[in-house]
Amino acid sequence: GVAELPPLDAGMNPAQREAVRYLDGPCLVLAGAGSGKTRVITQKIAYLLRDCGYAARNVAALTFTNKAAKEMAERVKAVASASAIKGLTISTFHSLGVRMLREEARNVGLKPQFSILAADDALGIVQDLIATTDKGRLRAVQHTISLWKNALVEPEAAERLAATEGEREAARAYRSYNATLRAYQSVDFDDLIRLPAQLLERDAEARERWQSRLRYLLVDEYQDTNACQYRLVQLLTGPRAMFTAVGDDDQAIYAWRGATIENLARLTTDYPQLKVIKLEQNYRSAQCILHAANSVIANNPKLFEKKLWSDLGAGDPIAVVPMDDDEAEAESVAMRISAARFERQGHWRDYAILYRSNHQARVFEQALRNLKIPYMVSGGQSFFDKAEVRDVLAYLRLVANDDDDPAFIRAVTTPKRGVGQATLEQLGTYAGERQVSLFAALFEAGLEQRLAARQLGPLREFGQFIQRMQWRAGRGAAHAGAVTSSEPAGPILDDLLQAIGYERYLYDTFDERGAQTRWQTVLDLVGWLKRKAEEDGMSLIDLVQHVALITMLEKNDDEDPDLVRLSTLHASKGLEYPHVFLVGVEEGLLPHLGKDDEEGDPAKAAESFEARIQEERRLMYVGITRAQRSLHVTWCKKRRRGREDVPREPSRFIKEMGLAADAPADAMPGLSARERLGRLKALLGKGG
Ligand code: ATP
Ligand code: MG
């Protein structure tokens, strides 16, 4: 019971305590990294439940990533009893959006089993609308539409706003894109927030329903919300405005996704009664780390004055180590981690390797493998973006919602089952004329006039197979007139995988090793789905509906948390690690300087260039402030670009940290990287 839980005020300074106890109106905690903002949220949840009589189902906390949601749930479990938190919502904006849309589907003109399209499915729709196969151009259109959606700009307005040829192209596609999504009974990721916001905007009844359900809202990482999320928070909390937002303008790193720091300032004007609380003590990092972070960020213009200090002691000096190339960098980092863990008898999970871009991960993975160091990659290509995962999920999506035409096409053609492009085109034309989904079209008698029996055969066989699965999953009533019965997800999954011959297909398509890895991924997926089904009592249909939002992080965390973390800087936000290796700290990589896309107006180009540097600097600040006890910075003197070695310069941010580009703190001086590696391998070999 409550008695065994730590007293609420323990481990909080007066400013934090004030933020936790403040319930007279909206509250904003604005403070630097590691100052305990997230802790304020978890403690405040406990305070609401334990001391203020809030029911868990009336409280919701919103985070930026699934990983952050999970971490927060763990932190809350430490301060509140299990029974007290049943029904509590700790989720991302997107998961909350899904929940709202499922419940309110009919009010927004969707059926409850609508599907959620990931970016690459939605790209197929864009491709249908824009006659080009240029992936870059398609992605640009998709991105522009996404930014409009996140800024709550509707197609009419977009047409007026479009200034460049690219934007005009996107604006022309925008309306049809939405219509197509609707026709497929699907939504994209942006809709998960946009549609609930729109619903609450126009439907007073729905608004009251949600406002009385969510009596208190807490939002972490507020600086990275976009206009749409801002609006949703505003509508969910209504005139009572019972919410606490916490954030740090210096850590705003999602402008490219439409997030806007202005939301912080806007709160103060939209809510004149807003209580603003600042936190100044950092409880995370040793002083020299914090000092470096502060001096980097001091180069950015300040929106809000912030002081940040720590009394955790000076700590080890920060090492800055130049490397010959990326392989040497990876080897050296892997070796250091191995040696340090060995010396300290610590955990693998105390070490994180943080980098700017996903493509940097590969060499580090190889180096870690060579030394048999267990690791996990987060924030990289999501597990759910892998082709084999998307293949299998296409079947499941189709079982859950047979209006999902993109899923139909993917499933019916992977593995190949004698359904050719010509057949599909005819099916598509017919479905278009009849205004039905591809799946529905294939059972219509009219199709028999269009297709030869040898074309129709495999199509219908496929359709019946999906129907059988639907029936077993509890969606059969509509087709068979039978009573709805639902089998557990496990056996259905096994039979489905068996029936489609996917393993066989992999071995026919890829070389032995490629097929093996891919098949293992599929088995991981199925195993994970089964566990999820059992633990959370989800049916296959529920599972499929949630899967689009779940990242692999959760899976890995469940299995073996004692792993070295490899992560992009973006994905490391909000987290902390005793020992951090910040790698690839070079001009052109961090700051990453994409090609200058601003044409014409040189003033505008200069401004946006400066704006980009500032965003990169915030990213650097985020990276440095993940470290608790030690920080290693590395950069490469050259890097391979295609077949060429390109010389590299240390990042300007190293100087801004107040450090020299070569300031090694060497644990094993006098040996070359390779010699040390050899010695270490010998050491590890002896140990077993
Ligand atoms: P970020 O900006 O990186 O998200 P944050 O402001 O959310 O950081 P937290 O993650 O909440 O900071 O806290 C940083 C660390 O300091 C955590 O390990 C937390 O448990 C610890 N901490 C926070 N407040 C206190 C306190 N009053 N006493 C002791 N430790 C604290
Ligand atoms: Mg935080």
TrEMBL record:
<dbReference type="InterPro" id="IPR027417">
    <property type="entry name" value="P-loop_NTPase"/>
</dbReference>
<dbReference type="InterPro" id="IPR005752">
    <property type="entry name" value="Helicase_Rep"/>
</dbReference>
<keyword id="KW-0547">Nucleotide-binding</keyword>
<keyword id="KW-0413">Isomerase</keyword>
<protein>
    <recommendedName>
        <fullName>ATP-dependent DNA helicase Rep</fullName>
        <ecNumber>5.6.2.4</ecNumber>
    </recommendedName>
</protein>
<dbReference type="InterPro" id="IPR013986">
    <property type="entry name" value="DExx_box_DNA_helicase_dom_sf"/>
</dbReference>
<dbReference type="InterPro" id="IPR014016">
    <property type="entry name" value="UvrD-like_ATP-bd"/>
</dbReference>
<dbReference type="InterPro" id="IPR000212">
    <property type="entry name" value="DNA_helicase_UvrD/REP"/>
</dbReference>
<feature type="domain" description="UvrD-like helicase C-terminal">
    <location>
        <begin position="287"/>
        <end position="574"/>
    </location>
</feature>
<feature type="binding site">
    <location>
        <begin position="31"/>
        <end position="38"/>
    </location>
    <ligand>
        <name>ATP</name>
    </ligand>
</feature>
<keyword id="KW-0378">Hydrolase</keyword>
<comment type="function">
    <text>Rep helicase is a single-stranded DNA-dependent ATPase involved in DNA replication; it can initiate unwinding at a nick in the DNA. It binds to the single-stranded DNA and acts in a progressive fashion along the DNA in the 3' to 5' direction.</text>
</comment>
<keyword id="KW-0347">Helicase</keyword>
<keyword id="KW-0067">ATP-binding</keyword>
<dbReference type="InterPro" id="IPR014017">
    <property type="entry name" value="DNA_helicase_UvrD-like_C"/>
</dbReference>
<comment type="subunit">
    <text>Homodimer.</text>
</comment>
<feature type="domain" description="UvrD-like helicase ATP-binding">
    <location>
        <begin position="10"/>
        <end position="286"/>
    </location>
</feature>
<comment type="similarity">
    <text>Belongs to the helicase family. UvrD subfamily.</text>
</comment>
<keyword id="KW-0238">DNA-binding</keyword>
<dbReference type="Pfam" id="PF00580">
    <property type="entry name" value="UvrD-helicase"/>
</dbReference>
<feature type="binding site">
    <location>
        <position position="284"/>
    </location>
    <ligand>
        <name>ATP</name>
    </ligand>
</feature>
<dbReference type="Pfam" id="PF13361">
    <property type="entry name" value="UvrD_C"/>
</dbReference>
<keyword id="KW-0235">DNA replication</keyword>
